[in-house]
Amino acid sequence: MENLAGIYAIEYLALIPETGDIVIAGPAGPWKTDEIGRSINIKTGLPTLQLDDLVVCLRNAWDNNGKYGCKITPRQPALVATQDFLATSRLKGRAWRDQLRETLGLQDIEVFGIDPETHAGRVLVEADYRMKLVGMGLEKSIPEVPSYLERLQVTPGSQGVPMDVVRWWFTMDYDDIVTDESRQVFTFGGNGVKVLSENELLDQFGNRIHTGKSKGPTAGFANDFTLHFEKLSGHYPIYRELKNLFDLSIAAALIRNQALDRRAGWNLTFFGNPTSDGDFVYHPSSGKVANEVASVMNHRVISERKQRSTVKHTLVGVSGGISFDAMQVVKPSRTITDKSGELSSLQFESNQPAEPTTWWWD
After folding, report:
1. What CA–CA distance (Å, rounded) separates 41 from 44?
2. In degrees rounded to 5, what are phi and psi of residue 272?
3. Whole-number Å distance between alpha carbons of 69 and 323
4. What is the 3-state secondary structure (H, E, C) of 105-140?
5. What InterPro entries is this protein classified in (predicted)?
6. Tens place of pLDDT for every residue, the chain, 362 residues?
C-alpha cells in the first residue's frame, strides 16, 4: 500500500459511483529498492507513486487550495560581500574559488504549503537544488542539456560580467483536463513539469532586482531542461519523483474541485487532517531536514589568445525554487468535455476484484 500497488504514472482518475470508489489508474508492476532506499519499478526504473505523497497532496488540496512550493534564497549581506570580493580580490586559482565559496556562505531553505519534513517536502528541495547543480555544470547533465557556462560566449575584447545572477525554478506544465460527459473519468497530459528562468540584477546593497526577462544561456538552459525532462528523469529519478508529486496534486485537486469525495460518499477518513477529537488518521513518515544549504556557484575562465588576456565569468544561483498551484490547472476554463465517447467507453468497474477487501486490481 505504501507504493500504491506499484503504479508509477497516473493516466486516469475515475469515480465509480455504484461502489463508492475513486480510482487512480496507470501503469504498474513489481518494484525494488534502489541504493538510496527509493522504490522503483523493476523494469522501467521509474519511482513508484507513494501513499505518503498522496495523503500530503489531499490535505494540501483542502487546506491550501493546491498551492505549495519551496525557496532557496541567499542572505543579503553575503551578496554584498561577494560583489566586493569579486571587485577587489587578487587571489587566484583554488584560493580564489575557496574564498568566493566562503564569502557566498549559506542559503536559507523554505518549504511552504506542505510539511517540509515529509517525503514530499524533501522531494521539492532536492529536485530544485539538483536542477541548479546541473544548470551550473556541477552535476553531470545529458548532451541535449548543456550547462549555463558551457553555453556562454564572450566576444573578443569583452571584459565579461563579474557575476551573473540567474533564477531558475520549477513549475507545472499540463494540458487541459479532459473528462467524459458525466464527469466521472478524468485525464491530464502534458510534460507536467517545466523550468522557468529570469536574469536578475544586484544593486550595491545586495538587493535582488527582478527584470522579468530571461535571455541567452539562462533561457536556453530552462528551455532545454523542460524539453528533455523525461530523459533527465531517467538519469536522476528525483525529477520523476517531482513529476509524480505534481500528478498526485492534480488528482487531489480534481477530487476536491469535482466533489468526487462527496459523490463517492467518502469523507477522507484516515487521509483527512487530524482533528481535535483524536488521532484516528494516517500519519505520513517524517524526518529531520536542513533549513540551510551551501550556495550554488561556478565559474569559467575564458582565455583570449589574440588579446593575451582572460575573462573570468562567475555564475551564482541566488534564488529559484518550486511554485505549484493545482487550481490553475483544474479550474473550469481548463476542463474540456470529451465528445468522442472515448473516455465514457472506459469500463473501470468491469475489472473490480471479487473480494471487497482488495483495494487494487489490474
Report:
1. 6
2. -75, 180
3. 5
4. CEEEEEEECCCCCEHHHHHHHHHHHHHHHHHCCCCC
5. DUF1598
6. 999 999 999 999 999 998 889 999 999 999 999 999 999 999 999 999 999 999 999 999 999 999 999 999 888 888 889 888 878 888 887 888 889 889 989 999 999 999 999 999 999 999 999 999 999 888 999 999 999 888 877 665 555 555 667 789 999 999 999 999 999 999 999 999 999 998 765 555 556 666 777 878 889 999 999 999 999 999 999 999 999 999 999 999 999 999 999 999 998 888 887 765 555 688 999 998 999 998 887 877 665 554 555 555 666 655 678 999 999 999 999 999 998 888 888 876 546 666 766 666 65
Distance CA 304, CA 291 (A): 42
3-state DSSP assignment of residue 192: strand
End-to-end CA distance of the chain: 15
Distance CA 120, CA 65 (A): 16
Q: Is the dihedral of CA 241, 246, 252, 258 positive or negative?
A: negative
CA 237 to CA 34: how far, in whole Å? 10
Which cell numbers hold the place of 345? Answer: 467507453
- Roughly what angle, to the nearest 10 degrees, separates helices 216-227 and 119-135? 130
